[in-house]
Amino acid sequence: MKEITRRRLLLLALAASAMLAVLGLLPRIEDEKSNRNVAFVVEYKDLLSLALQNEMKPSSVWQEIHALGVIGLSVQEYTGEELAFGSPLPLRYGSAEALGIKIGGITTDNAAILIDAKSRYFEPVSSYIRIKMPKTRIYKTRNNYAVFLPGDMREFKFSSIVPDFPALEFCMKNGIPILFRPGPCTPAGGRDVAESLHFLASRYGQIKNIIPSGLIVPGYPDVAPLADVLKRDSISLSEVEFVKQIGDTSLAVKVAPDVIPLHSLTRDEIISKNTSRRQMEERFVRAVHERSVRLIMMHPYDLQMGNRLGVFTEDLSATKAALEARGYRFAWPDTMKNRTAPMTGAFACAISLIFCFWFYCARIRGAEDGLATIKEALCLIAMSCVLSMVVWKIPQAARMMGGFCGAFAAAEAALTALERHDKPVFGAIGGLFAVAAGGLSIASFYGTTFAALRLTPFSGVKLTLLLPPLLLLAHDLKRRVHPESVSEIATRPAVWGELMLVGLVMAALVVMALRSDNVSNVPAWEIAFRDFVERMLVVRPRTKEFLIGYPALVIYWYMVRRGWAIHYREVLRLAASLAFCSAVNTFCHFHTMLWLSLVRVLNGWWLGLLLGFVFAAAISFFFNTIKKQGEMLGAR
């Protein structure tokens, strides 16, 4: 057979790209199946607070919360301000003058630590500070040691000086994994910070992870020595979701894949938004289940006055049960395996882009149902091979291809669905197939470990969301799907209804692009609605799919079949394209497990189509009722 239809050739190409994509996704699928350990972590100071409030030993509180999923304890590093306020360490902190220390060459405002000469903490405290700040000077007084820091009190107000050694000892004694929180210290360079952490790790082998505190990563901008120590001592790094910290990405890139995402709700956020305990639970579960977070920082609920331990254990128990019901195990989490971009994924993306672009050009010419020769097919395959090698070797080309691949796949999915108003079922299935082929291809090539950890963000998200409606509009004006051409629209007087509808669609596109990253610009009522839908389904479908795009698609089919609103259908077509843009974009969330992305797309598809049929039935009932009432009035 020397010729096949162009439509069939596209179908075969998308099927081939989907199969190649799945082949490239096998390591990711296996990694996601095995990476099911999750852990709660609690700050040691919260543990002490709960113990004091309930007149319990810290070890007793630990045993109680450990049984409810708390695996590790976070141990902080004290700043000058915190040491001045008071710490569990048996030492005094202040200026040389305030501490009553007079030694030649020491200014009165020099920051100093006074520690008992017989204290068992003198050796670790002095050794750590000397390593971290080599210009530190130590003098022996009558009964104490005076440790003079290289700076005044003002400089050390927010600089981290010394770890909570009693907390480190508590963790070592009870075999508890430690999440150490080193903070920035202006006199300590990158190599000094790294060597001080190595000193701690050699003494306290329970340090499994670090969570840098403060606005700047310790040792910045020279984070390479710290990364080397983390790798040498097998210590993972945690990045806190939605928290911007200078230098954290640079450090994570050097440490990856030994990075474990962590989610936390700050006290200020809980209080300012009056977050309920149920909302906290749902947010933690969603972070683990949808964004592959494996460490959850839990705090006693500050909006509860009295019985804080009881409320805290209830929250731990409820969240633990919700996660276990979804198949997660409570143990120290593993880091991801280092997955790189597969060649099969590059070939899948290239096929999707080349063939979808080729078929779009055929649609523009009105030749999509024509015949394609074997020579034409071989030429397209050769172009796909060349493009796959280009993106495999040139990162800049790969970044550009991702957005265009998603955009043309979404545009093809929308056009396939919209054109089958005569057979809506085939149109719906065809559109979903094009979405799956394009989305899986992108997920296969771009869904590396670095992308899953959000260290190499996908640069084509905005293009995937904004370009397909423009491609659809260009197609409709060229092919006269819309009854007027560009020149006719430009030369006739403006119709205010059209302008208003086009303005609404453009505003929706802008809002969709602005909110494509997360929920920072989403109102509270919509978040509550999302939570409700998520409780009803396994995975919440995306709003722009099941409430806007797919219902608009069904209403468009209905309008075409009834011959209604010829001049206003274009708005419905543009709105319908949003569903396919969003569905392809779902596969670009590489931190979400692949099967969840598939379920989310399917949920948006069937629920949106169902709502669309309900809306179409309501429209039909409304107009039929008006028609009957008009006929009855006419008969009278």
Describe this structure in words.
There is one protein chain. It contains 24 helices and 15 strands. The strands form three sheets. Strands 2, 3, 8, 9, 10, 11, 12, 13 and 14 form a nine-stranded mixed beta sheet that branches. A four-stranded antiparallel beta sheet has the order 4-5-7-6. The radius of gyration is 31 Å and the shape is elongated. α8 (224-232) links the parallel β10 (207-210) and β11 (236-237). The chain is of the alpha/beta class. Mean pLDDT is 89; it is low at 516-521. It has two domains: 3-32 and 338-623, no CATH class; 36-90 and 109-330, TIM Barrel (Alpha-Beta Barrel). α14 (374-393) crosses α15 (395-418).
Question: What's the gist of this structure?
Answer:
With 636 residues, the chain is of the alpha/beta class. The protein has 24 helices and 15 strands. The longest helix has 42 residues.
Beta-strand portion reads: 5-15%
Structural class: alpha/beta
Largest sheet: 9 strands, mixed
Shape category: elongated
Beta-strand segment tally: 15
State the share of residues found in helices, binned by percent: 55-70%
What are the segments in which pLDDT stays under 50 over at least 5 consecutive residues?
516-521
Task: Give the CA-CA distance, first to last residue.
Answer: 67 Å
Radius of gyration: 31 Å
Total tally of structural domains: 2
Number of helices: 24
Average residue-wise pLDDT: 89
